[in-house]
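Ticket 4471: requesting a sanity check on a complex prediction with iron/sulfur cluster. Repro inputs:
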Amino acid sequence: MNDTTINLNNLGGLAFSYSVLCERKFWLFENQIQFENTNENVKIGKEIEDNYYLRENKNIRIEGANIDFFKDGIVYEVKKSSRSKEFAVLQIKYYLYLLSKKGVQDASGVLKIPEERVTEKVELTDEDIVKIEEQLEKAKNILNKPIPKVERKKICSKCAYYEFCFVEE
Ligand code: SF4
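Returned structure tokens:
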């Protein structure tokens, strides 16, 4: 992918959180090298989200980002467990950022983890906006370079790209 093909307005929420989580994961995902469906953890998470959202269809799209559930000015994100909570919060803040860029300033977010009975409010602060814009710049630089090298992290063993990254071990 070169600079002319990059339009960060099209970056989805999941891709944005990947850019923070792992540069290589982000690069692979954005270059359409995706194994997400084969990973059991991702499948379970997706099932929970799908079942939750089936009750009401309140899906909206802003540029390239797809917000699964937006109702009464609130962005909802549903996750399987609190293990990925930090990134779910980040995803919500990114959606709130996109909404604010479209003039929707008073939206807020809610993270739900049904299996742990967690409901947490998420707000977008001025500090978040600065961080998101810095991260978007960083994301653009990642995509302008060749695939990032493998760097082992705690999350690797649960990552859909694990076999792709560690095939020779
Ligand atoms: S396995 Fe690890 S290094 Fe490879 S993409 Fe996933 S998180 Fe990144």
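Notes from triage: The two ends are 28 Å apart (CA to CA). Leaving this open until the requester confirms.
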